[in-house]
Amino acid sequence: MKTAAYYVKSALVGFMLLTGAMADGRSLEDSRRNSDDVPKLQSAERSQDVQARIEGQFSQRDAAHTALTRYLQKRLRFPESFVHIKTYYHREGGRLHVEMVYRAKNAQGRFCTERMRAEVSPEGALFGVRCA
Prior knowledge:
There is one protein chain. The chain contains 3 helices and 4 strands; from the N terminus they run αααββββ. It is an alpha+beta fold. It has 2 domains: 4-53, no CATH class; 62-131. Strands 1-2-3-4 form a 4-stranded antiparallel β-sheet. A hairpin with a 5-residue loop joins β2 (95-105) and β3 (111-120). Residues 27-49 are annotated as: Disordered.
């Protein structure tokens, strides 16, 4: 046999469903609105995570791209002469396009200013390094 409390609970649940009220006091519209915001929040968090990974690829001291600097210094005749001047980058699709301006000694021992360009993944892998 069902008690009076059972009937009261059933009536209360039915009333809440009819009026659109949730158990925590929010309306049904508020709960729908918040559930629609979840993909936007996740997308913003993902975007912040990607931006943090990108910023982590650059030196805090002189803003040089660390992987591109290592790659270049391995190929210089006088790696100790390397001086970073400026690094530019922009995002295009899923990759970064990085351009670095630097000075280094050439084969004759004179300093030359050069540019290097590379495509870089958000994780830091170099693709297509070339002189500009």
